[in-house]
Amino acid sequence: xxxxxxxxxxxxxxxxxxxxxxxxxxxxxxxxxxxxxxxxxxxxxxxxxxxxxxxxxxxxxxxxxxxxxxxxxxxxxxxxxxxxxxxxxxxxxxxxxxxxxxxxxxxxxxxxxxxxxxxxxxxxxxxxxxxxxxxxxxxxxxxxxxxxxxxxxxxxxxxxxxxxxxxxxxxxxxxxxxxxxxxxxxxxxxxxxxxxxxxxxxxxxxxxxxxxxxxxxxxxxxxxxxxxxxxxxxxxxxxxxxxxxxxxxxxxxxxxxxxxxxxxxxxxxxxxxxxxxxxxxxxxxxxxxxxxxxxxxxxxxxxxxxxxxxxxxxxxxxxxxxxxxxxxxxxxxxxxxxxxxxxxxxxxxxxxxxxx
Length: 356
Ligand SMILES: *[C@@H]1O[C@H](CO)[C@@H](O)[C@H](O)[C@H]1NC(C)=O
Ligand SMILES: *[C@@H]1O[C@H](CO)[C@@H](O)[C@H](O)[C@H]1NC(C)=O
Ligand SMILES: *[C@@H]1O[C@H](CO)[C@@H](O)[C@H](O)[C@H]1NC(C)=O
Ligand SMILES: *[C@@H]1O[C@H](CO)[C@@H](O)[C@H](O)[C@H]1NC(C)=O
Ligand SMILES: *[C@@H]1O[C@H](CO)[C@@H](O)[C@H](O)[C@H]1NC(C)=O
What we know:
The protein folds into two domains: 37-297, no CATH class; 309-356, no CATH class. The chain is globular and about 90 Å long.
């Protein structure tokens, strides 16, 4: 009996040894230091930042167990604020967009034991939040050594006098710097290095996030000219609001595929510089382990409507409650003061659904 448990412990030690730098995803965290090593995503979603976040030095210090990221944090002005904001943006959009899902983006700590569907999702979401914030920060001049996206290629300033009536335009203005943000994200999340199976799948998940940001890029044009005329049009690339990216990734969370090996899942990115025109293939989130059944945690949860309750309550039935709330109604312009709207308060009957 004792011999068997000794064998088991040995096996776990060996396992930990093989998944060293195991990004904290490890069977028994007590055994080796490597097993305890957390990834940036794990740290940012589970470690309390409150005591550190009053200044940028504090935030870099908070990252100190991650040598690579903490060094980058100290080196580049503006990055600490982005790291802080990455945490808020990831957590806020995750809880907001998963409010009516079986997994409400809670119990994050248990996600890092294995590679569940949820694990793959939070990796992609955190990575895209970081990249989105970097691209925006460049355009806003809030990150050292980067600026607005360079105006490039065939539509450059040489064609300043394009015929607007014929739909002409040129690049200009200040676009979100997606190109720089992508490079920065690859560096920060160390996406170019191949690791073991677990690491590769997580890196792949991060890449799904990077691509979601690239897909959200849009051409935005502004007219310029004397007294509101559209003499010339200047266009730049702008990332769509982060909620668009979250929704994109959320649908990939729902269609995620379980796999057993990382064969060909992750290849080192090609050496050639990424081009803006490059097609961004749709991709699927992948995970390794079947996660907890979130149904056991949905009792008492509020659902949106009958359809939503059907999935959220896992067939246990619904409790309906009629409530009355006040809401503004019969709104109209007031005669005496200009541009002021007055409303009355009306009762609104509402049915509230909860899971049994
Ligand atoms: C890890 O160590 C703590 C105390 O040091 C112990 O309570 C816990 O059971 C251990 N966990 C495992 C999985 O061995
Ligand atoms: C984080 O730490 C602060 C003080 O250091 C504490 O007041 C707060 O409750 C902690 N938050 C969580 C979620 O543990
Ligand atoms: C980090 O974010 C929090 C809000 O979540 C904010 O109160 C704090 O000032 C930020 N810290 C820095 C250094 O930007
Ligand atoms: C601009 O394009 C319109 C429509 O194609 C055409 O009628 C007009 O002559 C063009 N103007 C110039 C200055 O080329
Ligand atoms: C507001 O204007 C309408 C018609 O213009 C008039 O019938 C009404 O009595 C006015 N109400 C007040 C409060 O002056």
